[in-house]
Inverse folding.
């Protein structure tokens, strides 16, 4: 497995693979890889000949008070994990490779509607940063397929829409959330949790599951259910950011006629912001 840091090298290597008729899969990441990321790499390897994993902590998608500086950078450990998972090429550019003219002068991609509520409302500019860097990665790698985790449900919706709207010839594939035995969704940010917080964290998935059960039993009083879920999170010691029951396609508040529903949650445990989701068909 090779690691390249420059766009020039990346393009030269990928040109060679394309000339051999190989298909290319992309797994965009910010590194600090865990089993969730590795499941994306394995999925990409099933669907393409060559898997490129990008590792780039994208400053554009972090807010001013967020964890850009402390976000774990673990390239050597990530390379070992990727090599073991059958990854072909790691693209690990520096910030100056991606934003040579600086962030302020960078052309940006704005995705309307699906990026607007939920995390988009709580983290202004976040999805602009994600959409911009993912569009750039699509242009740099020109993959046939790209795999993203369903854990970032809204992000996946934003990326599907940008690929569709900008006519980018890539198949965007979602991969199921990988969970710890107690239900906590795997996330690089789980590493920030203290032992005590880690013991509380599974309440996020338990609350999602309980609410999904209530919906399956026929309840349609969505705002009461959202309120009950927020209370359950607060009682357990979290600070809910949002708990929203939405139409799975539009991410707009669900109405009674909707059959495909997704429960979206974000909550702070100490200073760590956890997100998760659960989709159901009624
Ligand atoms: O999900 C992530 O790790 C990031 O948002 C992504 C898609 C790699 C863009 O920086």
């Amino acid at each position: 497995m090779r690691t390249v840091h420059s766009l020039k090298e990346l393009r030269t290597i990928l040109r060679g693979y394309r000339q051999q008729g190989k298909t290319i899969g992309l797994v965009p990441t910010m590194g600090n890889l865990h089993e969730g990321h590795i499941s994306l790499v394995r999925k990409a390897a099933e669907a393409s000949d060559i898997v490129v994993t990008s590792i780039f902590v994208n400053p554009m998608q972090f807010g001013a008070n967020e964890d850009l500086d402390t976000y774990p950078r673990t390239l050597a450990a990530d390379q070992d994990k990727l090599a073991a998972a059958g990854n072909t090429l790691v693209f690990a550019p520096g910030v100056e490779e991606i934003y040579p003219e600086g962030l302020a002068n960078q052309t940006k991609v704005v995705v309307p509607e699906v990026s607007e509520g939920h995390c988009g409302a709580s983290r202004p500019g976040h999805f602009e940063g994600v959409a911009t860097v993912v569009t750039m990665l699509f242009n740099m790698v020109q993959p046939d397929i790209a795999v993203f985790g369903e854990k970032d449900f809204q992000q996946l919706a934003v990326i599907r829409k940008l690929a569709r709207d900008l006519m980018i010839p890539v198949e965007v594939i979602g991969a199921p959330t990988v969970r710890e035995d107690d239900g906590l969704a795997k996330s690089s940010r789980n590493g920030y949790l203290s032992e005590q917080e880690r013991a509380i964290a599974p309440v996020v998935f338990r609350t999602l599951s309980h609410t999904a059960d209530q919906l399956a039993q026929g309840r349609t009083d969505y705002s009461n259910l959202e309120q009950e879920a927020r209370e359950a999170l607060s009682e357990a010691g979290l600070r809910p950011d949002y708990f929203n029951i939405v139409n799975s396609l539009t991410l707009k508040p669900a109405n009674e006629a909707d059959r495909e529903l997704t429960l979206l949650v974000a909550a702070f445990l100490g200073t760590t912001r956890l997100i998760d989701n659960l989709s159901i068909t009624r």
Remarks:
- The chain has a mean pLDDT of 98.
